[in-house]
Amino acid sequence: MTPSALPAAAEVVVIGGGIVGCSTAYHLARDHKADVLLIEKGRLTGGSTWHAAGLVGQLRTSASITRLLKHSVELYDRLEAETGLATGWKRNGGLRLACNADRWIEIRRQATTAKSFGLEMHLLSPGEAKALWPLMDTSDLVGAAFLPTDGQASPSDITQSLAKGARMHGARLMEGVAVTGFEIENGRVVAVLTDHGRIACEKVVNCAGMWAGEVGRLPG
Ligand SMILES: Cc1cc2nc3c(=O)[nH]c(=O)nc-3n(C[C@H](O)[C@H](O)[C@H](O)COP(=O)(O)OP(=O)(O)OC[C@H]3O[C@@H](n4cnc5c(N)ncnc54)[C@H](O)[C@@H]3O)c2cc1C
């Protein structure tokens, strides 16, 4: 969609076309049938997403974040078939290595946490780790852990796939449009102002990544 076709209104305006914005647009359009307009000042995936290595690890210290990452992996398992756009997703598992006794204690604690979160994680001897990755020098390895459901993907491709999925469910995505401010009435945003015009809206989701603070401080 070109900036000249900027809609005058949308139920939800999503700001930012990185992986978070495209995923938000996809889920709002698919699961909530929302009328979504995503605004990206440059090109989709042009922010931090373009620089990411694409490692997808699920275990965090927070149960909620781990649950969210488990949802991501389930989504990546089927996204390519759903949209027809390759994501580069490979569920090849992830190794965590301990090269000293303290790190080994930490990894064993992580295994207990993983179990309580329902995430598969196996503790390995150095020999078992080497069997999984024969090129590794295990001379200083105390122990390791393998998380078989972790993997890697292409961040830009996943984002484009999510963008296509969002469009398939009716979302509109616009590149080359920068948000410059907001119109606020009674403490609520009623319109997003851009360098291409005004968009009346009911809700705004700020997915501008490292620019989110800047966007939040825009006049309004
Ligand atoms: C070197 C590196 C390696 C990384 N490796 C990994 C990894 O292996 N695994 C992992 O999970 N994470 C990794 N990350 C982190 C990951 O890249 C980020 O967490 C993720 O990309 C953030 O996505 P985002 O959508 O929030 O932000 P972004 O991708 O930055 O998207 C924000 C978008 O908002 C747009 N925007 C900003 N202001 C405006 C405005 N006023 N109007 C309209 N649009 C606006 C920007 O142009 C941008 O496209 C890595 C990061 C880096 C830098």
TrEMBL record:
GO molecular function, one term: 4-methylaminobutyrate oxidase (demethylating) activity
PANTHER family: PYRUVATE DEHYDROGENASE PHOSPHATASE REGULATORY SUBUNIT, MITOCHONDRIAL, SARCOSINE DEHYDROGENASE-RELATED
Keywords from the named record: Oxidoreductase
Domain called FAD dependent oxidoreductase: residue spans: 12-217
One GO CC annotation: cytoplasm
Protein name per the record: 4-methylaminobutanoate oxidase (Formaldehyde-forming)
Pfam families for the chain: DAO
EC number(s) reported in the record: 1.5.3.19
Top enzyme category: oxidoreductase
Tagged with keyword Oxidoreductase: yes
